[in-house]
Amino acid sequence: MADAPPLQIGLAGFGNVGAGVYKNLVRNRALLKQRTGRDIVVRRIAVRDPAKPRAHALPPDIVTTRLDDLVEDPEIDIVVELIGGTDRALDLVREAIKRDKTVVTGNKALLAEHGLELFALAEAHRTPIYFEAAVAGGIPIIKTVQESLIGNNIQSIHGIINGTSNYILTRMTEAGLSYGEALDEAQQLGYAEADPALDVNGWDAAHKAIILASLSYGCWVKTSDIFVEGIERITGADILFANQLGYVIKLLGVIRLLPGTGSIEVRVQPSLVPRDHILASVKGVYNAILIHGDVVGETLFYGPGAGQDPTSSSVIADIADAAMWEVQAGERNGGFVTHGLYGNPLPVDESVSKYYLRLQVRDEPGVLAQIARTLGDHGIGILSVIQPEEHEEESAPIVLTLHFAAFGVVRAAVGEIASLECVRALPVLMRVESFTA
Amino acid sequence: MADAPPLQIGLAGFGNVGAGVYKNLVRNRALLKQRTGRDIVVRRIAVRDPAKPRAHALPPDIVTTRLDDLVEDPEIDIVVELIGGTDRALDLVREAIKRDKTVVTGNKALLAEHGLELFALAEAHRTPIYFEAAVAGGIPIIKTVQESLIGNNIQSIHGIINGTSNYILTRMTEAGLSYGEALDEAQQLGYAEADPALDVNGWDAAHKAIILASLSYGCWVKTSDIFVEGIERITGADILFANQLGYVIKLLGVIRLLPGTGSIEVRVQPSLVPRDHILASVKGVYNAILIHGDVVGETLFYGPGAGQDPTSSSVIADIADAAMWEVQAGERNGGFVTHGLYGNPLPVDESVSKYYLRLQVRDEPGVLAQIARTLGDHGIGILSVIQPEEHEEESAPIVLTLHFAAFGVVRAAVGEIASLECVRALPVLMRVESFTA
C-alpha cells in the first residue's frame, strides 16, 4: 500500500466544519498516512465568497468559486460537501455521484429530505455516500448502526441529538434559568444560531432521527411521517415538577419497532427521563444515543454533537474509510442498506407511553373532578397528582402523570380539557419515557 | 453482490459465546444476508467433548473434535476462535493465518500475550485478524478506535472494562454489601467465575487495556510494562469515605499519552471518580470507555461488557465485515495498525495523579503530625483529612486526599507511613481521577 497514489479531496464549503476538516487533515496528515497507507490531500476548495473574513485562512492557490470545478476535475476522488442547505448541495452531490465520485457529507437536511433519491442514484453508480457527520457530530453512530450492530434487529433508539436544546434544558434544570435566559446564554456562547428555530423546534433532531430510523429499518421515513415537538413551551415550573416526580426533561428522538406489528414509531418530543437513567447524566451540549438491539442488548454512545473539531473527526473518518477500502476495492453499495423493507411508519396517534400533563386552572372546587372525569371518559388512568398549596391568586397549577395510553387518545382528552372553562392556559403535555426496547 | 458465494465459517468452541454466535447467526441469517449481500453459514464446529451437556444443542452433523479440521478445510473462509486460553488457541490462530484464512477471535489474553507475533504473521500473509469481542463485549470499541477515530491522536482512555468488578463495587456502594458478600452475589448470578481471580485482581481489565493502548499508539505494550491492582482490598469504609468526599470507587483502566514526552501511561487501579462524572453512572455489569481525541474531544461508549448475546453481536459484526469487504477486496493489513511507533510505556512510578489514602492508626496524640511530616518530607501536599469522631477503642481511621504527585514518590511515602509504629494496618491507597486528557 506504500505506493498507493494520494487521495485527492474536493472540499465544498469552508465554514466552521469545512475549515475544521481542512485544518485537521493538514495537522494530522502524517498520522493519517501511517494509518491508512495513503496520503490525503485537499486539491480544491469551493467557496461562494473567497474575500469573506474567516477565522481560518483559505489556502489561496486552491480556491475556486465554482462548485463544478470539483466534479469536473478527474483527479478528484472524493467530493466533501459541507455547504449545507438543500439546493446547491443537492446539485453538487447528484453531479458528483453521476461522475462516480465518492461523496462525503455532513448535511442532515439534505439526506432527510432527498436521501431516497440520492442513495438510489449512488447504488446505481456503485459509488458510496458517507455521512457520519450528519448525525451527532463526533459520535460515530452511523458506522455503529451500519457495521458494528449489523447482526442486530434494532428494537429501539432513544437519542439526545440536539446539543442546543440539551444545553438550554440543562441550564434550566441546574441553574434555574428561564427558557429565554438559557437560550440567550446558548446564543452568547455560540451554541445556538442567531436563528435557533431548527434547534429548539425539534427539526434538527428530527432530521437525525429520520436518518437513524431509515438506516435501522431499511425503509425511508418521510418528514411527513413523523411527529415533532420542540422545547419552546417548557417552563421552569415543568422542570421543578419533573424533578419532584424524580425525572429530568430531555428532548428525545425516539425510534422504536413495535414487536409483531412491523410498525416503526419515530418522534421527537420533550420527554421525562428518570433521574438515575444514564441519559439523565448527559448534560450541556453533549449528545448521546441509546440503542437496544436484539443481540447486543443496551448500548450507549456519547460525545460532542456538534462543533468544528468533533464534526471534522467524523468527516475525516469517512474520508479515511474511502481511502482504505472502497476506492481500492472499487465496489460498494450506495452506503445505505436498501435491502429489504422492515416496517412502516407508525402514526404518532397510535404510539403508547406514559405522560406528564401540566394545567393552569381556576382555583375553585370541583376542578380536579372535571379533569379526572374527562380523562376517565377517554379510558386514561391517572398515576399521580401534584397540586401545590402555594400559588397565585385565583390560578393554580395541577400536574398529573398519566398511565400508558395512545397519544391520539391523550391528545383528544387534553383537547377537551383545554376547552374546559376552568382551564386558564394551554396545557403542557410531555412523554414520560420508560425505555423499554 | 447477489451472486456472491456463501461465506463459510469454521467455529472453534461452543461454550457460552460460541453457542451464542451460532444461535444468533442462525436466527438473524436472513437479515445478515440482506445487509451484507452474502449468506453466512457455519460449516464446521470444533469442540473438545461433543458429549458434554450444553444449554444450546450442538448441530451433530457438523461437529468435529479436531481443530485441524477447521484449518484444513479449503471451503472454510473464516476461522472463529472462541475456545479461550493461550495454548490450543495460539496454535489454531497461527495455522489459520498460515493458510490465509481470516481470523475472528474474542480472546483478549491471547492477543495481550501473543499479539505482536500474531499480527506480524497476519501482516505477512495479508490476512486480517478481527477482535471486536476481545474488549468490552458488545461495545464496538475496537472499530471505534481503528476506524471512527482514525483522524485523532488519542490523548487518553479511561475505561470501566471489567463487569464483575464493577458489579461488586456497585453493590458495595448502593446496597452497603461487604466485598465478600458482593462477590458471593456476583457468583450466584453468574457474573463471576468460580475462580474470580482474573476479574477482581485487575488482569482481565489489564489485557483489554493492553489491546486498547497498543491499538491507539501503534506500539506493542507488554504485560510487564503495566501496573495492575485489583479491588480485593476495598472495604465498605473506603466506599463511605469516598462518598463523603464526593466520589465513587471504580476499577479503571487508564491509558494516557503524556504530552511532549512520547510516554504512554497504562495502568489498572481502583480509582475515585467524581460522583457527577458520567463514568460514575456506569453501574452493575456494564462497561464504558471514555476516549479523549485531539480532534473529536471527549466521547464515551457504554454497553454490556460480557455475556453470550452481547459478545456474539461483536463476533458477528467482525464476520459481517469480513463478508462484505476484505474477502472480496482480497487485501488488508493484519488488522492492527503497526505503522509507526508513537510512544513508549511510562514507568508507573512516574505517573501523576491525586490520591486517596486510608490509614488505621493508634488513637493517641501526635499521630496525624507524624503522618503529615512524612508526606511533607516527600514533598506531597495534603488536600483534605477526615478523622471521624466515632471509632473503635484504641484504633481510628484517618482518610487523606493527596495533591498531584508521582506514584513512585507516594508509594515510597506510604511505605514509610506503613512502617510507623502508630499505623496498625496496611494502608489503602487509590487514585483520585481527574480525567484530564
Radius of gyration of chain A, rounded? 24 Å
Shape of chain A: elongated
Quaternary structure type: homodimer
- Please give the count of helices of chain A: 14
Number of domains of chain A: 3
**Percent helix range of chain A:** 25-40%
Q: Which CATH architecture of the largest domain in chain A?
A: 2-Layer Sandwich
| Percentage of β-strand residues of chain A | 15-25%
Number of E strands of chain A: 17
Spans of chain A of 5+ residues with little confidence (pLDDT < 50)? 326-333, 337-341
Mean pLDDT of chain A: 90
Tell me the CATH superfamily of the largest domain in chain A: Dihydrodipicolinate Reductase, domain 2
First-residue to last-residue Cα separation of chain A:
44 Å
User: Structural class, judged by helices and strands of chain A?
Assistant: alpha/beta
CATH class of the largest domain in chain A: Alpha Beta
Largest sheet report of chain A? 11 strands, mixed
Chains forming the largest contact = A-B, 60 and 60 residues
CATH topology of the largest domain in chain A: Dihydrodipicolinate Reductase, domain 2
Give short descriptive properties of this protein:
437 residues, alpha/beta, Dihydrodipicolinate Reductase, domain 2, Alpha-Beta Plaits, 3 domains, 36% helix
